[in-house]
Design brief:
Helix content: 25-40%
GO molecular function: ribosomal small subunit binding
Pfam families: Ribosom_S30AE_C, Ribosomal_S30AE
Shape: globular
CATH class of the largest domain: Alpha Beta
Protein name: Ribosome hibernation promoting factor
CATH superfamily of the largest domain: Ribosome hibernation promotion factor-like
Structural class: alpha+beta
Number of strands: 9
Radius of gyration: 19 Å
InterPro entries: HPF/YfiA_ribosome-assoc (IPR050574), HPF_long/plastid (IPR034694), RHF-like (IPR036567), RHF/RaiA (IPR003489), Ribosom_S30AE_C (IPR032528), Ribosom_S30AE_C_sf (IPR038416)
Number of domains: 2
Strand content: 35-45%
Number of helices: 5
Order of helices and strands: EHEEEHHEHEHEEE
Largest sheet: 5 strands, mixed
Family: Belongs to the HPF/YfiA ribosome-associated protein family. Long HPF subfamily.
CATH architecture of the largest domain: 2-Layer Sandwich
Length: 191
């Protein structure tokens, strides 16, 4: 498994990096047989340390958790505890998908754009078709089943997930509705 351990304006020592690897390996060995990558970022917010952890699994799922504490090791432990709880909750579903998927999830390259919010409504009325692009990024769209997409969205605590439906090969969207339910957009291409 690849690790990317970094700090935002704080130094991360070798002892902490070793501790991160040990803790994540111990936790992930219980739930996910084939994690592929872990990104751990430490930062400081006022008097607390913050540990943001994202683990990419070969099943296509991304588990993320954030922990805060007054000590950096305690922040890591809090983050690991939250991730452990998430993976324990989804253990049965992860195992079922893992058995059915012998190969890692295919990823489709795509462009992602950040558009500037209009400051003045009059400006947006005069040029509605030409929004200002603030940033252009590369992203990956996973090829998943609808159930896996919903699970991925819930694990990432994301409000929306764009994915390629394995059954139809079309681009689909799942999202959390205001009423708490999950919505699914599946454009029809026949006809």
């Amino acid at each position: 498994m690849r690790y990317q351990i970094s700090g935002k304006q704080i130094d991360i020592g070798e002892a902490l990096q070793t501790h991160v690897r040990t803790e994540l390996d111990a936790m992930l060995s219980k739930y996910a047989g084939r994690p592929t990558e872990a990104n751990v970022v430490f930062s400081k917010s006022a008097h607390e340390f913050v540990c943001e952890t994202v683990v990419h699994l070969s099943t296509g799922l991304n588990a993320s958790a954030t922990g805060k504490a007054t000590e950096i090791y305690a922040a890591l432990d809090a983050s690991c505890e939250k991730m452990d709880k998430q993976l324990r909750r989804y253990k049965r579903r992860l195992k079922d998908h893992h058995k059915a998927r012998p190969n890692p999830v295919e990823l489709l390259e795509a462009g992602s754009y950040i558009l500037a919010a209009s400051e003045d409504e009059e400006d947006s009325a005069t040029t509605p078709d030409s929004p200002v692009i603030v940033a252009e990024l590369q992203t990956k769209i996973p090829s998943l089943s609808v159930g896996e997409a919903v699970m991925q969205m819930e694990l990432a605590h994301a409000p929306v997930l764009v994915f390629r439906n394995e059954k139809t090969n079309g681009i689909n969207v799942v999202y959390r509705r205001d009423d708490g339910n999950i919505g699914w957009v599946d454009p029809r291409t026949d006809g």
